[in-house]
Amino acid sequence: MVRVILPQHLRTLAKVDGEVLLDVIGPVTQQTVLDVLEARYPVLRGTIRDHVTKRRRPFIRFFACEQDVSHESPEVPLPESVARGEEPLLIVGAMAGG
Questions:
Q1: What's the CATH number where 58 sits?
Q2: What is the reported pLDDT for 22?
Q3: Strand bridging mode 89-93 / 2-5
Q4: Residue 97 scores a pLDDT above 70
Q5: Cα–Cα 20 to 30 A to 71, which of 31, 32, 84, 91?
Q6: Which pLDDT score, from 0 to 100, does residue 94 have?
Q7: Cα–Cα distance between 87 and 69 in angstroms, integer?
Q8: What is the pLDDT of residue 98?
Q9: Which residues contact 22 (CB under 8 A, 6 or more apart)?
Q10: What's the domain range around 32?
């Protein structure tokens, strides 16, 4: 099971508490994790990725094993510790200010 931690506003939207556990079949990549997440919580479609292009939305970041993996290809496998559920994939809403 892959562990995913969502930002508070997406947890509220999906009506979940704490982290989400997902059963990902095949390689564990950003793409496969988000596919399973959106299938399980359809209300999240379009909030993390664009509906059409499936690209990560601006101001959304992904962290795995304390590393920012936001700019890696969505098809690149996530670290084994994330795939095994030892470490979570964090989805973070970045903040900008001025």
A1: 3.10.20.30
A2: 98
A3: parallel
A4: no
A5: 84
A6: 76
A7: 14
A8: 59
A9: 1, 2, 3, 4, 33, 36, 37, 40
A10: 2-93
Residue 72 is given by DSSP the state S
Q: Which pTM value belongs to this model?
A: 0.92
Q: How far is CA 37 from CA 22, 91, 96, 97, in A?
A: 7, 12, 26, 29
Question: What DSSP letter does each residue of 9-65 carry, written as one string?
Answer: HHHHHHT--S-EEE---SS-BHHHHHHHHHHH-GGGTTTSB-TTT-PBPTTEEEEET
What CA–CA distance (Å, rounded) separates 35 from 39? 6
Count of the separate structural domains present in the chain: 1
In this structure, are residues 88 and 82 in contact, taking their beta carbons and an 8 Å threshold? yes
Residue 98 domain-assigned (yes or no):
no
Beta carbons of 32 and 65 less than 8 angstroms apart: no
